[in-house]
């Protein structure tokens, strides 16, 4: 059974405590003031391999000062 976790942060930030327990096909969503970013753990590890290998993520949190272009593919367009 697939899991989906969701958390909020003031910018695009990856919290290891939420992401690491997931299986490859489980999804997580990061809610930010700029929008919602949703991806599977597998996609995260592929696209953000630099984050996974970083000391910051290893300590629990990696966040971007500005959202990188590669993250925009995971931005969910809200329907009004």
What does this structure look like?
With 80 residues, the protein is of the alpha+beta class. It has one domain. 25% of the residues lie in helices and 31% in strands. The chain is built from 4 helices and 6 strands. It has a 4-stranded mixed β-sheet with strand order 1-3-4-6. Strands 2-5 form a two-stranded antiparallel ribbon. A hairpin with a 2-residue loop joins strand 3 and strand 4. The N and C termini lie far apart (30 Å).
How many distinct beta strands?
A: 6
Helical content (DSSP H or I, runs of 4+): 25-40%
**In angstroms, what is the radius of gyration?**
12 Å
N-to-C span: 30 Å
Q: Output the structural class.
A: alpha+beta
Beta-strand level of the residues, as a percent range? 25-35%
Overall 3D geometry? Answer: globular
How are the SSEs placed, and which strands pair?
Layout: E1 4-8, E2 13-15, H1 16-19, E3 27-32, E4 35-40, H2 41-47, H3 49-52, H4 55-59, E5 61-63, E6 75-76
Parallel strand pairs: 1-3
Antiparallel strand pairs: 2-5, 3-4, 4-6
In short:
The chain is of the alpha+beta class and 80 residues long. The protein has one domain.
Please name the defining characteristics of this protein.
globular; single chain; alpha+beta; four-stranded mixed β-sheet; 25% helix; two-stranded antiparallel ribbon; 80 residues
């Amino acid at each position: 059974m697939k899991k989906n976790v969701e958390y909020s942060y003031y910018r695009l930030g990856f919290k290891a405590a939420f992401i690491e327990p997931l299986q490859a096909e489980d999804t997580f969503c990061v809610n930010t003031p700029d929008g919602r970013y949703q991806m599977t753990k597998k996609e995260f590890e592929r696209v953000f391999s630099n984050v996974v290998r970083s000391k910051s993520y290893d300590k629990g949190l990696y966040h971007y000062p500005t959202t990188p272009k590669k993250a925009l593919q995971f931005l969910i367009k809200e329907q009004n």
